[in-house]
Predict the 3D structure of the following.
Amino acid sequence: MTLPAHHLPVMLDEALDALAPRPSGIYVDCTFGRGGHSGAILERLGPEGRLIGLDRDPAAVEEARRRFADDPRFTIVHSPFSALREALEPLGVWGRVDGLLLDLGVSSPQLDEAERGFSFMRDGPLDMRMDPTHGESAADLLAHVDEAELADILWRLGEERFSRRIARAIVTARVETPITRTGQLAGIIAAAVPRREPGKHPATRSFQALRLWINQELAELAAVLPQAREALAIGGRLAVISFHSLEDRMVKNFIRGEQAPELPREIPLMVEPPAAVWRPIGKARKASAAEVAQNPRSRSAVLRIAERLS
């Protein structure tokens, strides 16, 4: 299929292989973005198939309606994926879904549009909200956050080793002038970092941490995973593409934690052990070298796949 030059869906072929769409199946793209994965799934569906897309970004919902308004197989819901049950139950597909995809992180258009405030590479308003109509922006957060709390956010979510220095520099700078622009924040961070990682902008980790915090991305993921289990039919597949080690660890531990425990043979069992919920499909997969060369943003992508058993 033909996609806009600025939008390259990450691990598209691998995601399709993971979901293995059936012509008459029901599928959910929890992160519509700009529709790269959704469009490819629709190409695999027949007249009886169904695809539900979710996104909390109003621009993504608008794009979904523009591209697929005339396709009766497709429904878009303006919703964070943490509200999966609320989105799917009214559509009559809860517990019947054959495949569910989560492509975590931000989409290319969100990064490329300066006014969204996600990127230190393009100066714009310091926003970072995936849904600009709800919640606190990054500028709002930095105007009041305590220095110790800010350092903790940068350390835990960005693994930024200079988190204390950066937090102190931000709190000091805001006394003189409110921090409202991405370029302004990137400059403060760059001046505070004594040593730079080769090939990486000194603001990379801090911007990542602030984005994760502003959008509560780890909390969103923790909320959706158990709902995904209930949404899927027996034999349905869950496919999650993550870009951050914390996210990938959460997905891996969730899948492993819902498998049947391995007990020593010598322990007599008076009751049946709990049945496994998931069957992992292969090992974690990463983007190919060819894809990384074409789309550097796929470099850190990790895909995990599991099939619901019970």
Observations:
- The chain is about 40% helix and 15% strand.
- Confidence is low (pLDDT under 50) at residues 1-6, 260-264.
- Residues 247 and 253 are 10 Å apart (CA to CA).
